[in-house]
Amino acid sequence: MxxxxxxxxxxxxxxxxxxxxxxxxNYARKFYFDYLARWPSMFIVAxxxxxxxxxxxxxxxxxxxxxxxxxxxxxxPWHGHVTALTVAPQYRQMGLAxxxxxxxxxxxxxxxxxxxxLFVRVSNKTAISMYKKMGYSVYRRVVGYYSDDPTxxxxxxxxxxxxxxxxxxxxxxxxxxxxxxxxxxPEDIYHG
Length: 192
Known about the structure:
alpha+beta, 8-stranded mixed β-sheet, single chain
């Protein structure tokens, strides 16, 4: 039996089972605590019957900095962002990622966000397929977004910026067809 619930400060020290996955981004403890303090409704964990955290999602709501507003259609309005979603290997294929993401979507809907977005390695075909099944599509490809290399080849890796409209965006204004063919550099994320 796995229970999905809001993250608590004590849970931060129990994320190791999930964070051992080489495709999971790891952050300093302060980063996790900052998210928990700023967006408590958007940091959700799945706990097994032994009290282990076996999956979690961290998200936030944000918009581009004010100075970008002058760029008109390049400006990203208030939206939800999936910062991290991970499930321990032995708990995959149980629907936990979908359940956690659905709760994050609901929290972002309550904040009146236009859409959800996330970044995923282009090599992570399993995650890309899962996100597409959840309604996400590729908005753009960010060349060299990940500077680390879990494959050990010593090169950077591209990311797909994937998005899903929420109920506020009835016209799918922030979704793009053939986004995998639209390339930008990491420094242009706020400009493209």
